[in-house]
Amino acid sequence: MILMDEKDKKIQGTIKAKLIHNFERFLAEGSIVVLSNFGVAENSGNYRIINHPCKLNFYHTTTVKKIEVFDGPVYGFGFVKFHDINNKKIGDEFAIDVIGDVVSCGNMDVYDRNGKEGKRINFEMQDLELISKSGDSSSQQFSQLSCQTIYSMRDEFLVHTKRMSVDEISEVCKELKCVVLGTIKSIKEEDGWTLRDILRSTTPCSEEKLFGGKVVVFGGDFRQILPVIPKGSRHDIVNSSLNSSYIWDHCTVLKLTINMRLQVGAQNDDSDQTKQFADWILKIGNGTLGEPNDGRAMIEISGDLLINETCDPVSSIISFTYPNIFDNVSDSNYFQDRAILAPTYEVVDTINEHMLLMMPTEETVYFSSDSICESEEITTFDRSLFSLEYLNSLRFSGVPNHKLALKVGVPIMLLRNIDQANGLCNGTRLQVEKLGKHVIQAKIITGTNAGMITLIPRMNLTPSDKRIPFKIKRKQFPVCVCFAMTINKSQGQSLSRVGLFLPRPVFTHGQLYVAISRVKSKDGLKVLVCDANGKTMSTTTNVVYKEVLQKM
Questions:
Q1: N or C: which end of the chain has fewer CB within 10 A?
Q2: Domain DNA helicase Pif1-like DEAD-box helicase, which positions (predicted)?
Q3: Nearest to 199 by CA among 175, 218, 174
Q4: Which of 73-77, 227-231, 455-459 has the lowest mean pLDDT?
C-alpha cells in the first residue's frame, strides 16, 4: 500500500499476511491515520511499487489511530546551522540531511495565497552537485521502449538519479572500458566535460582528451525524428544533431544494413515481400521517393496499404487496428503490440476519446489541481490575471490534461519515470484494472516486466513549456489513454499492427519514416490519408532533411 502526507510525499507500507486483520479496518483508502511503533527499512525487493528509498513495516506492536483532522506538526524536521552539526552540538539521536549551503538570505516579506496572509524569507542555496550520469536503466529487449524514455536527462534527472561523490564516480571510472549511449541524435558539450573533469581528478593526462579518453559508443538512426527545438527552424534542428557537432569528426561510423524488426515478424514464405517493404521504408527514410525535392516531397502510398473507406474512415482504421475489441477487453496481450499513430496531439485526443466512448465499462473522471508554483515571484495582481479556469485549460506535451477520463480495461501510457528498476518509466504502457480515489491499479503490458501489477498515485507535475511566463504545478495521475499515440511518442516501439492516421501531413524530418517502420510486417500496416474535407487520398507529404544524411 502507499501512504501519503499533506505534502504529497509518498512512502510504501508493508504488512505481513498474518497481521492484515489487525489493521484492515483502519486503513481504508482516503482515510487519515496516525501511526506509531512502526519500523523503517530499505525499500528493496520484488514488491517495490514507488521510487522511495525507504518503506514502513507494520508490526504486531504498531498502533493505528483513525482521525478526522490532523493538527500535529506537519514537517517533523527543522533547519539547523551546519556549524552546529559539524561541531557535534546536535544529538546522535537526530537524523540529518544536508541539502545545500545557504549563500545569501533576503528579508522577510508578506504574500497572499488564496486570501490568506503568509510570510516567507527568500534565500539562495548552493547545490553540492554531487551527481552521476551513469544510472541503472531498466533492462532492454527488442520489443521494449528506446532508452531515451527510460533514462532522460530532461525528465527530472536530478530527482531520480542516485547521488555519488566525485571519489565514488572515480572508482567506477577506473573500471570503465566503454560508455554506450543508445538512440541518440544530439549531445550537449557539457556531457563530455563532466566525464573529463571527473577523470581529471585521478588521471591528469585525460584532461585534454575527448570524454577523458574513454570509448563512447553512440547508437542512433538519423532517418528518425531529430531533436525537438521549440520554434526552431530547419537550420536550428540540423545544427543540433550529433553529426553537426565537433565530436563527429572524432567518430568512426559503422552502419547496420538489416531491418531486424521486419526479420522478427517475417514468415518463411514472404522473404521477397519483406525485402521490398524494407527497401520502400529505406527510400522514405532517405527521401529518395518523389525526387527531385528540397526535403519535402509528395509520395504515393501503395494501394494495398491504404484504407479507402469514404463513409467513416476513422471507424475503418479503428476496426483494422483493434478488431473484435469487445471480445478482448480483458486480454492484456491484445493491447500489447498495436496502436493508432497520428502526427499531432489533437488528432490523438480525438481518437482516444472516440474509443473511450466505445468501451462498455463505467467511466471515472479525475480533475487535476492546478496552481502557480510558490517559487514564482508573481504579484497578487498578476495572479488574478491567471484564473484557475485558465490554468485548467492549459495543455502541455508530456503532462496529462486537467480532465482525465478512464475506464477499467483501457490501455494507458505512463508519462513520468516512477520506478525504473521495475519498468515504470516514461512511455511504459499498462492496462487499467481498478480505479480508486487516490491510486490507479494497472497491469504492465510492455517490456520485461509485462504482467506485473502496480499502483500509480497522483503526482505533482511541472511542465517545462517555455511558452508560458511562469511555472505551473499540476497534481494529476501521470498517465494518458493510449489507444492512439503521436508518431514522436511511438519512436522505439515495435508493434504487430499499426494504423497510421494522417488527416494532415507530417511536418518534420523523419516522422513518416518512424510511423511506417514501427511494424514487424507489411500486413500489419494500414494508412489512412484524408484531405481537409475528410476525403481519402493516396498521396501524402514526406519530410527529410537530406543535409543530415549527407554527413553520414
A1: C
A2: 193-293
A3: 174
A4: 73-77
Residue 292: asked if its preceding bond is cis (omega within 30°), the reply is: yes
Q: Which of 488, 509, 20, 31 is nearest to 297 (CA)?
A: 509
- pLDDT, residue 89, reads 64
Q: How far apart are CA 136 and CA 417, in angstroms?
A: 13
For residues 431 and 412, is the Cβ–Cβ distance under 8 A?
Answer: yes
- Which pLDDT band holds residue 111 (cuts at 50, 70, 90)? confident
* Cell digits of residue 211: 570524454
Report pTM. 0.68
Q: For position 140, what pLDDT does the model report?
A: 34
Burial of 182 (0-12, 13-18, 19+ CB in 10 A): middle
Collect all residues with Cβ–Cβ distance below 8 Å to 189 and sequence separation of at least 6.
245
Q: Where are the domains of the chain?
A: 1-98, 274-283+296-543
Q: SS3 sequence, 45-66?
A: CCCCCCCCCEEEEECCCCEEEE
Q: Tell me the C-alpha distance between 160 and 53, whole Å.
A: 11
**Inter-residue contact 68 to 32 (CB < 8 Å):** yes
First to last CA, the chain: 51
Going by their DSSP bridges, the two strands 39-42 and 32-36 should be labelled as: unpaired
Q: What's the rounded Cα separation, in Å, for the pair 245 and 237? A: 12
Reference 385, options 372, 402, 397, 367; nearest CA is 372
Are residues 493 and 478 in contact, defined by beta-carbon separation less than 8 angstroms? no
Of 527, 523, 20, 11, nearest in space to 274 by CA = 523
